[in-house]
Amino acid sequence: MGDSNEYKYLTKIDYPIDLRKLKVEELPTVCEELRRDIIEELATNPGHLASSLGAVELTVALHYVFNTPYDRIVWDVGHQAYGHKILTGRRDRFCTNRKLNGLKPFPHPDESEYDTFCCGHASNSISAALGMAVAAKMKGEDRKVVAVIGDGAMSGGLAFEGLNNTAGTPNDMLIVLNDNNMSIDRSVGGMRKYLVRLTTNTTYNNIRYKVSKRLFGWGILNEKRRRGLIRLSNSVKSVLARQKNVFEGMDIRYFGPADGNNVVELVRILQVVKEMKGPKLLYIHTTKGYGYAPAEEDATIWHAPGKFDPDTGERIKSDSDRPCPPKFQDVFGKTLLELAQKNEKIVGVTPAMPTGCSMNIMMNAMPDRVFDVGIAEGHAVTFSGGMAKDGLLPFCNIYSSFMQRAYDNIIHDAATMRLNMVLCLDRAGLVGEDGSTHHGAFDLAFLRPIPNLTIASPYNEMELRRLMYTAQLPDKGVFVIRYPRGRGNTVDWQCELEEVPVGKGRKLKEGKDIAVLSIGPLGVEAEKAIAIAELKSLNTNPSEPLNIAHYDMRFLKPIDEEILHEVGKNFRKVVTVEDGVIAGGLGSAVLEFFADHGYEVEVKRIGIPNQFVMHGTVAELRQICGMDAQSIAEVLI
Question: Of 41, 248, 377, 620, which is the active-site residue?
């Protein structure tokens, strides 16, 4: 946090009620102080910077105009909401943001009454806010409800589903569309400014209200005609502004575009529109990273920049000068380009994460063969399915926790037709500081029951390359490859590309007392655990030390039945290790196999427990879940 002596206002604002005691003319200074506070904190405690900087004025204006927490503000996505946290009683704890037992990475009702809904994933604000608005109307409460949707979330299908329902459901909700670099054309010139002031002018809206009321009284304007008048009004605005928008054909009053980084103007507009009846949409334009030059110049890098010098903007590298293993995502990106250069059928698909998954490597080299479809995971899978149906070979890369949104698409639009396509699940397993909404905990369990899928997870970076090579060979069907966030363990990872037999694991170590079956990179922790357990056993019982076998299963589906028969026949104790929920994953598959084949084996499953895991470093969370080397070793001894 910044020195309290530096701030004229911020140290006196514990809650929004304190903010509302200020004069409007004082709010720009509040915004400056809030922005500086966010920058100074994130310089040492990394998080999502650029989005929150761009939304500072909007955050201040919303809490100034609306009576929060009674009035509801539904954020979408939580990247924008750091200023919101600071203004709602959490400034003294903001230094714990994203740390173990500290503030949650995204707004959550469990943390504060000001956090009206969970918003770790994009595009849910309109639906949730509509539900709240309808509840308020049914209960006779004069509660205002605002959905703040930004950071590209409007491209998500759920947002349009909510928007469609908003148009046909009685409500007084306000939607604020925060465009901080979306593909919406900006209107320019004096007419735009004039239109914004006209449509949010008190006199204009009073006249409009009186005229419509008089028309209702004369019986000229019924409900159907009222909706037509709104459409006509929006259409006239569109003609005058020389822009079209998706809302003009709906029964939603449209205002904007407005300058979202002008807090005084935002307050004026919000004070007018908040009392209007019926659904409303205010379109604002903000600059991502606003007020901090480095973040304004490269919002992608500064979305989550890590540690940096707040004065110079120099990013601080956490790695030493010695060579270090690459990130799994970079191995994916470089290998994908290598494969695409040899296989002209390969195309890349990503829902708004080309840099996050390193598909930008292929995008830069082959822009015509990579498709960023926006925040639309279900569409990404079905779009890939369409290309696969007509002979292309899509590598569709979606973060594991976001792939949850495409479940039906995987079943209906890929697996049922046995299409040749590759689903790459980045950020599988525990991901660390982004917490429960981002852990890739469920993919093994929810994908395993689906027919016609191959599900694989590489032990290391070289295995990832080999699995990617295997997946693009002819007639492999829907091939799922899951891998974790972060770095691997091997500096020299550029191995030869060779086929891996589908459904075949490998024995990494012989043994006779216990069999450890692991899948994915968590097998490295299992390998360390075996060494710890055997050494401790040798020290305590040198005459009969433990001898532990280790199998890298590689594939969850089809699972290697030859290995399972071998283990079932030769071992009475088996430990399964996976970086996913233990309910339904590798451990469950092994138990089912042993039960089906009559093997009486004691099986201990190690994985993510049946609960939502908090945020913290990956090492901290693995220890809490009993998935680190030391914890696994204790099970083996």
Answer: 377
